[in-house]
Every structure is written in C-alpha cells, then in structure tokens.
Design a protein that fits this description.
heterotrimer; A alpha/beta (about 625); B alpha+beta (about 250); C mainly alpha (about 230); B: about 250 residues; alpha+beta; Ubiquitin-like (UB roll); Fumarate Reductase Iron-sulfur Protein, Chain B, domain 2; 2 domains; 5-stranded mixed sheet; two-stranded antiparallel sheet; 8 helices; 7 strands; about 15% strand; elongated; C: about 230 residues; mainly alpha; 3 helical TM bundles of succinate and fumarate reductases; 9 helices; globular
Amino acid sequence: MKSVLDSKIPSGPLKEKWDNYKNGIKLVNPANKRKHTVLVVGTGLAGGSAAATLAELGYKVKSFCIQDSPRRAHSIAAQGGINAAKNYPNDGDTVWRLFYDTVKGGDYRSREANVHRLAQISNNIIDQCVAQGVPFAREYGGLLDNRSFGGAQVSRTFYARGQTGQQLLLGAYQSMSRQIGLGNIEMFARQEMLDLVLVDGKARGIITRNLVTGEIERHSGDAVLLCTGGYGNVYYLSTNAKNSNVTAAWRCHKRGAAFANPCFTQIHPTCIPVSGDYQSKLTLMSESLRNDGRVWVPKKQGDTRKPRDIPEAERDYYLERRYPSFGNLVPRDVASRNAKNACDEGKGVGETKLAVYLDFAEAITRLGKDAIAARYGNLFEMYERITGENPYETPMRMYPAVHYTMGGLWVDYELQSNVEGLFVLGEANFSDHGANRLGASALMQGLADGYFVIPYTLGSYLASNELQKVDGSHAAFSAAESDAKARVEKLLSIQGTKTVTEYHRELGRIMWDYVGMSRTEEGLKKAIAEITALREDFWKNVLVPGEKTTMNKNLEFAGRLADFLELGELMARDALERQESCGGHFREEYQSEDGEAMRNDDLFTYVAAWAYSENGHTLIKEPLEYESIKLTTRSYK
Amino acid sequence: MAESMNIKLKVWRQAGPKAQGRFETYTVPDANPHMSFLELLDVLNEQLIKSGKDPIEFDHDCREGICGSCGVVVDGVAHGPQRRTACCQLHMRHYKDGDTIVVEPWRAEAFPIIKDLVVDRSAFDRIIAAGGFVSVNAGSAQDANCLPIAKTAADLAMDFAACIGCGACVAACPNASASLFTAAKISHLAMLPQGAPERKSRVTAMVNQMAEEGFGDCSNHAECEAVCPKGISISTIATMRREYFKAMLG
Amino acid sequence: MSLKNSLSSPVGKKLITGITGLGLVVFVLLHMIGNLSMFSGDDAYNEYAQLLASFGPLLYLMEAGLVVFFLFHIVNGIQIWVGSKKARRMGYDTYRSAGKPSQQTTSSRSMIVTGLVLGVFLVIHLASFKFGPGGPGNADPSYVTSVAGEEMRDLAKLVHHKFASPIYAFGYTFVMLLLVLHLRHGVWSAFQSLGAMRPSLTPIVYGLGALLGLAIGLGFIALPLAIYFNVI
C-alpha cells in the first residue's frame, strides 16, 4: 500500500491542464481497441455513459447492473436538473464561475483541477444529450430553457420537467442499447459484483452473483470501471433507491482501494418527513421548489395552529432572514442545518414536529396557480399522493434527509483509484464535490466522467500498460470466488432471530443520531462503539431466510448491510478525525457565534483517504492545493 | 397517529420460473393508512421471516414511481386503483379496515415469472436495442442551441419520453400487447428532428422486435393508457402506426 | 422488408383489419339502406335487387372485393385473437378495467365472439337469400315476379317468407344487435388502427362510430320486425 497518493494533476495553468493532459497521453490504436475488454459495473449516468462511449470507440464492454434493466439505475430518480456553463441566459455565467461556485459550494474540500475540468466539459454534455434526443425544457423560441438552483446566482440548470435524471439516464441507456444491439456491449442485468480480482496488483476482473439463479460468476477484463453510486443507504432511511449500496465499492476498498472523505454526506433539505416506523425510504422534493417556495416555521414554540391560521407576523422565514442575498436558495447543507435548528428549538410543525413549511401561497398569488402548476405540477402531485395533502392549498411539510454522498473511493485526475486498472466514476468516487455538492451537479459529474473523461484516461492506461492475458481460470479468481461463496453461506447459516431490516434500521438510527446533520466528538465515539457492537451481533444473530440458489432479496440485502456495518464505523472515524466543520460535515464544537460552519484550513485542507489492511484502517492525507482560488469563509448572507 | 387496519392479502406465490404457482392468503393486522402498498408488503415479509417462512419476492427500487421496477396487479388493476400511480406510491389510505387485496404478478408470456411477483422484462430492453435510440456517438454533437425545437414539440416529446418501462401496459392489456411501450419511444423520437434520420428503420425494427418477443397485438382497448403511471396516451400508438405506414411506403 | 412481412407485422395486421373493417362498414351501411326500400313496397325492393343484378361483371367484381375484405378481416381478427391467447396463457384471478380513459368495454372484449357469430350468420344469410330459392344455381319459378313488365326474382316474397318465422326474425334481430356491439368498438378502433386518431378526436369519433353502428343495426332490425309483426 502506497503511503502517498499521487493525484497526477497535469502541469500548466488550470485552464490548460485538461488540454495538456489530452495532448500528452498515449492512444490505443483503433484496431487494438477491440482486443481490450472493459468491465463496467453499474449502469447509471456514469456507468451507462461510459459503457456506451467505450463501446462506440471499439472496446469490448461487459456491463453489469443489479436491477432487472440498465434503465433502472438510481440516476433515474434525479429530478431537478443538470448544470452547464452555457450562459444561454446571458446572466454572467462562465466556465470559471461554474468551477468557482462548485469549489465554494463544496466548502473548499475538492480538487481544483478536477472541478475545473468538470466545468469545462459541462457544455459538451448538454450538446451530447440534446443530440441523443433528450427532451430538455425549451422556451417559446425553441431554444433551451434554464432555471436557478441553490448556491448559484446565475441560471445554469438545464432540466426536463421534474424528471431530468430519468431523461439523461434514458439517453445514456439508449446509447448503450444501441451498442448492445450491435454486439459491442454484453449486458449482465440482475448481477451483483461481490469482489474485485487483482492479478499482479492490477484490477483484472470481478466476481458477481447472478441474482436470479444465485450462481457465482467470474468475469475477466483489462480494466474495471466502478460506477456503483453512493452509500447513503448506510442511514437506512435516505432518498436513495432501496437497492443502492456500497458493496462493490467496499469490496474494492478491502482489496486495496482507498476510501476518501467517507464522512462527507449530503443531507437534502426538502424531503417528505417520516410518517411512521414502517417507513422504508424517504422521498425527495426537488430543490427547484425553493425557487418559488418560501421556507418558514412559526415564531412561537409548539404552535399547533393550522399553517394558514398563523398570521404573517408570527412566521419566521428564517432563511430569508438569515441569508438575505441567497434567501431560500442557500446551498443544501446550510438549508438542512437551519431546518434542524428550527426543529431543535421546538418550532417544528406537523404530527412529529420534525418538519418545516415550504409555502407556495405567495408565488401562487404572484404568478397564478397555472404558472406554478406548469413548473412543479408533477412534484405537487407526488407530494399529494404520498401525504394526502394538497400543496396548492396548504404548505408542504419538509424535513432534511440523506441524499448523496460526496465521499467515495479515492481517485486521481484520471479517475483511477490507487489500485491500478480500477477506475471509479460518478458518485462512487470522491472527486468533485468536496464537502457539499451543489444541486444539479451530480448529473453533470456522472455524465462528464462517462462521456468525456474516461475515454481518454482509460485509453491512456491501456496504451501504456502491457497487460498479460488473464481469464477466469487464474488462481486469483478462484480465491476471490471462494471468499464470495463463503460469505453467502455464512450469512445463510447464522439463522438467528433478528431480520436484516431490523439491523439496518438500528444502524440507520445510530448513523442519523450521531453521524448525521450535526456531529460531536462524544457522539461519534458512541457511534463507533455502538456500530461495532451491532456488527458483532449481526454476525451472530441475523436471520436470513430462503436459499442461495434462487432469487433471494433478503440475502442480497444482508450482504450489503454487512458492508454498511463496516462503512458506518469508518464514516464515524473520519468525522471524528476531521476536527472542523465544512459543508455537510458539521461538528458542533467548530461553529461561529451565529452557528455557521467553521473550517480549519490550516489543518484540514486535505482529502482524508482511508486505506484498509488486515490490521484496520490507516489515514493517508492528500493535501489540497489551491492555486487559482483563494480560500474564504463561505458566506451566503 | 392514524389508526391501524387489518388487511388481508391474497398473494401469488411461485417458487421459480417453472414451479407451479398458487395463491396464499395472509393477514397484516397493523397496516397504517400512511404506509405505501410496498411498505405493507415489507411488513408482511418481516412477519413471514419471523415465522420461518419465505418472504414474498417483488421488484422495487426507488419507491418514488420513477425507476419502473415495481409493478404488480392489485385487485385486477395493474399498479392498483389510483390513476397515474405506480404501486410504490399507492398508499394504504385508499383501503379500509378488513379489506382483502388480491396481488398478482404481471402475466404475459413475454414476461416470464422469475419468482413470486417478480417477472423478467428484458424483452423491453431488446425492443429499445432494436432501434429506440439516436445513433450519435459521444463527442460528435454540435452546440445544443443550433437546433431550435418548437416548445410544443419538445413538450410532447417529453410526455412520451416519460415512460418508466414498468410493463403495466402489457399487464393490463387483454392481449398482453407491448404497443404502448414501443410506441412511446417511437413517438418521443418522432417528435424531434434528432430522431428523423432513422425514423423509418427505427419503427420497422422496433415493431418487428415487439412481435418477435411474443407480445400480443393491439386491439385498441386503451386499457394501457388507463393504467400507465405516466398517463402516456394511446395517441402514441396511432403515431407509431403512421410512422410504420410511412416506412412501408419506402 | 417485403410487403408481406409488413402486412403481417403487428401494425400491418391493424392496417388490414382497419381498412377492411371500414370497407365493410360502408357495405353494411349501403346494404341496410337498400333493405329499407322494402318499406316502399315489394316492387321497389325487387327493382332495387334487379338493379344490382343488372351491374353484371361489375357486381361480380364488387362481390369478389367483398369476399376478399371479409376473408382478410376474419382471418386477421382470428390471428389477433389467437395471438393474444398465446401472449398470455395464464390469465388473472382477478381482472378489471381501470376505467377512463380505457376504451375497454363489452364491445371491445367481445369482438372475436361477435365477429365469429357474424361470420357464421353471413354464411347462413347468403344461403338463405343470395343463393336461396330463385337465386343463382337455385332456379325456382315460384320466386319469379314481374314488375312493370320486366321479369325478375321475387326476392321480396322470400324475405316475407323467411321473416314470418320467429326463428328467422328474432335470430336476425339478435345478430344485428351483435353487429351494433361490433361496430361500437370497431369504427373508432379502425381509425385508431389507421393512425388517424389524436386524443381530442377520440371521444368524438368513438361517439359517432357508436351512433353509426346503432343506426346500421336498427336499420337492419326494422325490416324483420316489421314483417313479423305484420306492419308491412
């Protein structure tokens, strides 16, 4: 294990780094591309776009997803939009400004060069998606429409109603489908990656489980692309899809890939509040709602009047009051923390008192109900379906929920982990969002990685490495396969008394209470102790029903939970180690007098990359060097 | 808190693709009006596991009505009684204490049952792979605003592109036809200039693939539109036919 | 792709069913209007029949066209039905329509039944009337009459004779009610099959189609009932 991580940032001024990189790399001869097999795990925006693009270039691609179709990856649920520095509205946007907003939004804990490349590429993504037929919203003149999102003072968000993620994903999926039809991609749906196979220190294959037959399979290739999304489900309740998990990434981590900034999680401010113990997941309401919705709570504690009966003077529009320049459009971490504070002060609303109002009355009066319906109609319908309340008449009740994880496997500028041949794309890596992600940036990153970054960096890797031919019969595959089989058998053999869901809820409670929106040294230590105990109990007392040879979702979830039980502890440790508040990571000990996050740039301007070994985790720091941006206190006031 | 309800469920159980299936009846004594239909199944499954039985397998993922994973026939209607709602967003407040709910998988030869309520919908993927795309390689696109598209056309394209590929259209169709699914994609791309160069080959290939997968033919019952969680109109099917006739004429 | 393949595709089958269906609607409409001439008296009716017969080769051509339309319509309809059975071998325990905007009705679900009954009826009907006494290959002097000095087949007599029997009169009425059911879904469906539909037109065309079906059916039914109850 290398004790220093080389970020491989290219030389030259920030604006020229990506071009310099592209000019300097070796290329794979077109005729040789088909001799390389690339394994792409995950079919979301990152994996789908990568698989399609690599196949278009001529590589042989094998693509894997746990869902029944690549079209169902969780990117599909992204609602609001995708950022790009097109500056079509002529409101002062530039590549630099998108870059700057993203670094600032991330509270100066991301890598300048990566983020700048992302901002540069952002425009190509919109072009590509439009060419694929993605039906972005348009103005009457026939040109593309933009809207505003949190953390920016320009309108740079492209959107397709409240279904932008769906449309972008279907664009990538369709491109993939075309390559599947042409025979350039071999698709393996309902297959879960259970391990990474290393040969001579390089990633050369994966072990998967066929989720229909239970068979354990070996797949070999010249490189592995991990595009498996985030780990928000460690909290049990999150906006992530039920199948989203950390297993593939965690298995890679245990094979040597460093895990960076695991404690950086994003708690999204506008989600439908929890309604009961049976709750299985949380539903996000797009950030775009904050364009017209006003957030408030009653000024009086424990006010049980109906929202419409509370007069203006007795309402606290706390975001507008505290952050006059950004108002309701402050970044997500700020909005979430303020909602929590309001509820902690006893001003929460609804049955559980864990909610704040998001009110459209003023916007409906100003713009008319039809205009609001045109903008948010489908979101309002969804809210009503879930809560039984009509948001045209009564304000929505909102509470923060875990939504996105900025942390992930450590990657260098080439999106390669410290394990050679293992590339990590999209939410699964840590690279671009620092300590907080701005709205509409996840879609941008996933597609940037897949369509426009990996084709170059993977090519460079393949062209500059002599890779011996390796197939599934190699001893490393046998070893990894037996490990995977043993794990499955172990889980089934325990036959204890507590179900997987019960353990998962318990882990979620610990994580939410102590590693959630605000964290303390004491709480984090408690979390580590409780998670350790829970994990031990899990391996003694979990009850996994059914067999290993048929579809068995409880068995799948058990394996994923086993990894979450390890990850949760590392997240708490990482949060403990980072003695500052930044972005989504808020340590109560480190706050300003008026309760804002207080960074400590002298000590913590680094990426915390955790390396795994049999003896536990060790921290490797990758210092973050800011050459182009001056670190300032983030202010949205 | 809302009062709990006693709900009976008559659920299709089938151990594997070739196994003989049967209905089993279960009772959930503590259903809550705020819970979703899938959460009701979750609660039932916990109950089953605790009593040493196999839980009911059903596909689900986002539980926000967008991924298209979930889908069962509830009391004879695909996705259940609420219009434009996938069954993950169906809430128990639509039921009352003592109700019995019949739950069946999508039934179509082109969607073979994998286990219990889980079916194999890969036929849909093959229909898309036959032509449901614009052949444009990454990197070759011109500036996005070089191609103005009337807002009305873009909005219609979005209406059609909203399909989540859940398969309810097939499940509800008396003929088990996949016309609405196939037509939605054809219509989405037919509305846009980007889709124009391949429009003829697309419609021909997709329609042929649909037939090859063993779906039935359309008899214009329009049941598909009624159960579609996205409310996609059967006007897409009319569009698909026009596209096809144009392709036939060469 | 060959024309044959195109026409046997899911869309091609609808094209054939739709075109032949609309053609047959025009035919039954004209047939029904022709039948109504009986209300102007037997002679008018016989003259109308004679007029048709006088078309000679043109009539044969039209009849051949009708045969082709019927055959394609029937064969396609059966194919679609068989295909639907193959596409879902195991049905639902509980099944119901989700309601509007579904157009699923007794009409739409019984197209194969009403269609087959109409097909069988067609054979009997042709045997009874077209090829009945006095018809082609079945010369019968008692069914010859003379109108305005011209000798012709006395089809009116045959009609009177047949519809005096309750089985004929009510059987015919029943089958014509099935035709109403068939057309209620069929007319709208044909336009949708031909791609001529848009959401705003659907309720109008469906309504007009159903009305047309009803008018045709009632027009047909009027004659046998009038004869049976001695109105004419």
